[in-house]
Structures are given as C-alpha cells and as structure tokens.
C-alpha cells in the first residue's frame, strides 16, 4: 500500500475512535414512583444540551473554545488530527504493508502487534507520541476526548494497533477475490475465469530474477473468456509478469481500453 492509502486507513481508524468517544452515554431510566393519590409522577428530563450522538464536527457547539485558532481546528478536527499525527510518524510506519514486514522482521516486531486488540510496546508507543505536534493533544483535550494532554498515548494506542494490523493483513486467497463482473469489460452476465496476473509458466524466472515476492505469485484477476484471451494475445507471459501484474496496469493500455469498450457491447442472442 502507498503512503496515501495508508493515510486513508489511519484517518478512518482515528475517526472511528473519535466518534466512539463522542457518543453520549445512555442513562438508565427509572420507573416513576406512584403518588399516594394513584397518579404517576411524570419524570423530569434534564437537557444536557447534547444530542444523543454528537457529530465530531459539531462538538465546537458544546465545548469551551479557548481561542479562534482552536475553533478553526475543531471544525475540521478528524482531518487535522489525522494529518498532523500521520506525518509525524517515521517513514517505516507511514509506508507499512504486508510486503514491508516480509522483508524486515524488525519493522514487524516494532510496529505490528499480534492483533488489533494488542497494544504496541509502551516505549515504542510513547516514542511515537512524543513526535506528535502539541496542537493535537490540545485539540483532543479541548474536545473532551482525553482528560488532558498527558493521556495522548492511551488515546492513540488502539488506533495505531488497528491501523498497523489493517495495512499489514495478508492478501486474500485467490478464490476469495472473485468478482461479479469481468474486471476488464465489466460484463456481469457471462461466466468468469481466473487469470494469473503473474503467469505460472514464468514463476521460476520471476523468483530467480527477483521481479516479485513469492507470496504475490498467485494473484489473479477475474475475467470473461474473451478478455482473458485478449490479455494473453497482447504480449508475452514474461512481459505480463514484469509489466502487467495488476489489473490497473493492464487497464492503462490504450488497446485494452478500446477492446473493453467494444466487447462490453457484445451480447449473445437468446436461443
């Protein structure tokens, strides 16, 4: 995954944590006691001024904003906090991926916990939080999302664990990647077959020359028979392995785009 893709994952993990902490706890309602005259006393409701579920972007209406600068930050809080925090992380953490931890066990042991529920080593976590700009804990504290700026590590611990385990998850088994439509022409009413994006006939050469990692060899695309045949006609298996090992790379070719437009209009006549 690229750094931009990883940032999107981190932002979602952060946003989920903010939303979870912004929810107003539900109070248990007690049944009103009956008066002596037999009439029930209507329960009095106390308006806290907060909706049942607080929108993080609207929290500015319910907190004590101490300055115009903080006010501006609160209006775009999730984006601001994510950007400020993510860019402060070291490069190996920003570009973390399944491929990266296959090549560097130290990165895996340092940044990737056993699962999303397991926190990072406390020293690693505190070192990461020490580089986060001070505006981030100030904003979180102003929101009431952390008691004070010193609780930054506890706030980010589950977020970083969830992020790290998400971006380093192993690729799915090829059968689990099946699509409903051909990944080139987008027709969904015809049978599909799987195309090895790195043709099996050149697997040995691929590994010998280091073009790809072994765990990528069984990557597939789900194509209709017409598109499958077209891909194998367009170039050699070796070139497919070296240059066209993803669907996106295949679709960048102009001849593939022209083919997809044409074949997508082909429909078999009913018997």
TrEMBL record:
Region (Disordered) location: 21-52
UniProt feature, compositional bias: Basic residues: 27-38
Name of the molecule in the record: HNH domain-containing protein
